[in-house]
Specification:
Helices cover 21% and strands 29% of the residues. By secondary structure, it is α/β, with parallel strands linked by helices. It binds NADP nicotinamide-adenine-dinucleotide phosphate (NAP). The site of NADP nicotinamide-adenine-dinucleotide phosphate (NAP) has 28 residues, from strand 1, strand 2, strand 3, helix 2 and helix 4.
Amino acid sequence: MSDTPVALVVAVADNGVIGVRGGLPWHISSDLKTFRRLTMNKPLIMGRRTFQSLKKPLDGRDNIVVTGNKSFRPPGALAAANFETALALARRCAEARGVGSAEIMIIGGTQIFEAALPMANRIYKTEVHGRPEGDVFFSALEAADWQELERTPLPKGPRDDFATTFVVLERVGRDSEPSL
Ligand SMILES: NC(=O)c1ccc[n+]([C@@H]2O[C@H](COP(=O)([O-])OP(=O)(O)OC[C@H]3O[C@@H](n4cnc5c(N)ncnc54)[C@H](OP(=O)(O)O)[C@@H]3O)[C@@H](O)[C@H]2O)c1
């Protein structure tokens, strides 16, 4: 089995909020475009609630939905009973697409981000510059584990509720520790 890299894609407000009442707490058109560009032609892993927050399965991508409900048959998507099964499924999907070395994209929500974080190589993070009401949060990252590859401030466009900053983080190599 290939060792396809794993990446998180998250949009998080300045107060840590990522969701409210089963949906996103904002509409940011420019970030939806970024999300589409980053995830296209790749396998996506998401929790059942995130899947149900979408109007339909995301086109051009493998939608893999983690659920403990054995009878949940998501239309246009594959169900996985736990995160490990989802990951194995995503690796097979990447191979089948002939993009075995492309990233597996973890798109939330909270438990799925937490399960994936220890094995994630990259995080594509949109910092949303607002403090909206919310009921789902993204935990702060351990700064020492991540180095910034990119930081691009994006002003609020006409179809954006907030200004954002797009940040790409890469895990600091575990073998790049300074020797004693
Ligand atoms: N801003 C962002 O980047 C972003 C990204 C994603 C989602 N969101 C928002 O976050 C909210 C949804 O996230 P959420 O954290 O509430 O829910 P979620 O993670 O999308 O879904 C939770 C469900 O996933 C299943 N699940 C999770 N871990 C599992 C495991 N280890 N084994 C088996 N099943 C597991 C369970 O489904 P069952 O109950 O079916 O067993 C659980 O109830 C929405 O508001 C959404 O809009 C925001």
